[in-house]
Design a protein that fits this description.
With 553 residues, this protein is α/β, with parallel strands linked by helices. The protein has three domains: 141 residues, Aspartate Aminotransferase, domain 1; 250 residues, Aspartate Aminotransferase, domain 2 (3-Layer(aba) Sandwich); 130 residues, Sufe protein. Chain: A (Alpha-Beta Complex). The chain is built from 20 helices and 20 strands. A seven-stranded mixed beta sheet has the order 4-10-9-8-7-5-6, sandwiched between helices. It has a four-stranded antiparallel beta sheet with strand order 13-14-17-16, with helices on one face. A three-stranded antiparallel beta sheet has the order 18-19-20. The N and C termini lie far apart (70 Å).
Amino acid sequence: MNKFSASQFRQQFPILQTVSDAHQLVYFDNAATTQKFDAVINSSQHFYLNSNANVHRASHFLSAKATKAYETVRIQVKDLLNAHSEKEIIWTKGSTEAINLVAQSYGMQQLKLGDEIVLSQAEHHANIVPWQHVAEQTGAKIKVLPLDAEGRIDLTVAKIMINENCRFLAINHISNVLGKINPVAELIALAKAQGATTLIDGAQAIAHLNVDVQQLDCDFYVFSAHKMYGPTGIGVLYGKQQLLTQMPPYQFGGEMIKKVSFSGTCFNELPQKFEAGTPNIVGVVGFGACLDLFSGNGFKQLLSYEDQLCAYLYNALAKMPEVEFFVSAAPDIPLFTFRLKNVHHHDLATYLDSKGIAARAGHHCAMPLMSYLGVEGAVRVSLTAYNTITEIDYFIAQLQAYGQQNLGVEKAVSNSEFLSKQQILALFAKANSWDLKHRQIMLLAKQLPRIAKNLRSDKDLISGCESKAWLVLNKPVDSPLVYFQADSDAKVIRGLLVIILSVYQAKTIQQIIDVDIEQYFETLGLIQHLSPSRGNGVRAIVQRITELAASYL
């Protein structure tokens, strides 16, 4: 690879040329998934045009060609990790399935009553829930390592907690929320000294570090291709050959067998023993198309450029008094989680989206960490080598603009007339871009009569709405009409509540049940702009409205 050029690298990613509502896409959600470059995209078409066949099983030339391409990538991954053998590389759907495989095939077999499974406060749900299930089934106990002031696993406490009762250590290499590199080598050594087995979740680390599994001496290491410019639906489980050989299969069917009869079955050798059924062949081949990026001097240059982005963005954010970080010091990779004072994280993310900036908001599949930090959610921006200083400057400018708009603490509105469906339609007919529609939603938020904080009851919380939202039904005894009170801690949800209630307020129960809210939002031009979290929130609100109304039938 020649000297790294950010501009040349960026040109290989077609989606980064996207323009929406006159805003150039600024993609800052790389910790969730990276974009794909030409070689990966083209590899799928090339494979289907020239090599499409099932692997390992057939005797014809296409199968041989497909098998060679497929197994070549396994060797590439072995080299990437410095694994001892390609037999230690197991294809999975992603990090989540890889962890579940270990939990089921190792944890359920080896752990027992009284054993301790040690995790950390900063784990992704995918590295918590499987171990909770193992603990429930085996009688093992979950122990949780705290973090230090900078957001890394606290080594001092770990030396006490990782004791003779620890049988399994499962921790992340880099937190998907805090962006800090954990001292995994030291933690693995502590666990090994007690005879414990170790698993490292490398989903956030693999694209930003040189990973040498032999040097780390971990027993298992997992990651996903889609976070390193590769395809979705393909991941890697590295496991020491001795352990994988002893472990029973995770799934059963074709490919993972050597011989089948009704009197018994003999399982295949590694790695096929853990790869039941037709695999994601084109995903593996596509993954191979990007692996050259992660080796040699070219990778060093790429990481050096990412370090520049990280330092530049951290310095810019640190100068903003309204920005609140959750731990001290800069992150180790360009992954920043923060909030603005007096601003709900979903409101900020929605605003950024209206300006063409793709960021993430919520609990980031790390609810225990959010609770540990004392927050319900936050905004996360995560950069990679195709991002630019110019994009950072634009992002900071938008943060500053939004921060100025939201100075001070908002006061509750005591009463206000609800807008009608016709009034809402008229307002949105004039808003012909997502930027203008978003602005209108935020203006409508001011029209919602607020529920006093001391009257917001947990029983009135709407289940399924990621932001907190409350809904109360009032039905006068002498009237067939139904009235609602609603509120939310997020402005964007309050604005959406005004829109939703414009078709439900002061209606009969039957009229409420008959409303086609999807068609209404389609007419307003909002359907395509609702993210999964916002869309699910709208559906949860509507479901709660109809449930409350139906209870009066």
